[in-house]
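Re-run with default settings, no changes from the original entry. Doing this only to confirm the output is reproducible before filing.
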Amino acid sequence: MSIIRPFKGIRPRADLASAIAALPYDVYNSEEAREIVAAEPKSFLQIDRAETLLPKGTNPYSEAVYKTASETLNRMIDEGSFLQDKEPCYYLYALTMNGRTQTGLVGCASIDDYCNNVILKHENTLEAKEQDRIRHIDACSAQTGPIFLAYRADKKLGEIIKNVRLTPEVYDFTSDDGIRHEVWRIDKMSTIRSEEHTSELQSLRHLVCRLLLEK
């Protein structure tokens, strides 16, 4: 059985979300990443691609890069650009492009489940890329790159997600590429507009236990 758990997310301050948000680190080469960070100094690429803060020609896999990533993340936390939720939460993240919306449930998955094929692998990854992200995670003491997983459709979970989306978002902005980003926090303290929604939200963790097999 796989384990999916809520967590205390460290996330951007609401008014900085659109500035911090960035595409995945591996869609840019080093020069492109530098241009993004120069144009938007709050961009998360300064953490994901920390060589952008170091002299040109710096080896992106050098210890200095991982150290800079850690220092930059901690600095942004200390200055209040990032905040941490006080209670473990699940999150909903919706992306809308050209009228089509994809919605995901964000939580923590078990590495052991992945290694033991409880969570099925969908691709072979390059060892050099794996080692880079392992070193990045170790240096930052944070998982800075979400992993996409799929689960079987369930009508009840779909209804709960639909109702959560009726509540106020913690983020709602449109990025420069025209994609709308919406995020909802799901915890026992969430404000729900109706008694029916409150009941369904309170049952979410129990439903996730059953569907995603959380202990």
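The first helix runs from residue 17 to 20. The chain has a mean pLDDT of 86.
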